[in-house]
Amino acid sequence: MSRIREKNQELIIQVACQLFAEQGYAATKMADIAKVADVPKPNIYYYFKAKDNLYRAVLESVTLPLLEASKPIELLDEPSEALSEYIKTKLRISRDHPYASKAFANEMMTGAKYLPEDIANKLHCQSEMIIAKFERWIERGAMARVSPHHLMFTIWAATQTYADFSWQICKVMDKQQLDDQDFADAAEFLTRLVINGCQIDQLK
Predict the structure, then answer these.
(1) Computed over its alpha carbons, how large is the radius of gyration of the chain?
(2) Which of 109, 129, 118 has the alpha carbon at shortest distance from 60?
(3) What's the predicted TM-score (pTM) here?
(4) Separation in Å, CA 117 to CA 17, 56, 57, 70, 113
């Protein structure tokens, strides 16, 4: 029974990710999610109790991986290795959680009105950690004196765009969807761009 419950919850979250991404929080109804998921509406309330709880599950499906993604920055002391792993992980999130990423982006663009405070606080703490680590690398001469804030923003934008603007990217590349090689190529290019831009190899 627990496996069936888990499978049903995963299905509901996947459908909710897509509808919240396409319609936003306010416009998405539990009945819409039930219809697309082909499950009785009471089942959704049985598993999640309320729309807020389901929305939190959707946001957590991308924010939890995002919070884990910065582990290389936190734990590794070599900037080129840490940044390479961070960029690859962020791109994997865009590949594996495209609708959840779009839902999260929509939440940010509309002022984070429904973002739970504890998730917002964890994301803020993560940002402070990343900036502090960049500052330490700069101070010890391991990377150029770039803006830590704008470096972080640039990595966010460059990696998350592959999920949040996937339609435009696929249109330009004349593809129905991006494949693993596209993400590998993106990781290689973005890593080289960041490492060269921060003059990391030149300062060794």
Answers:
(1) 19
(2) 118
(3) 0.91
(4) 20, 11, 14, 20, 10
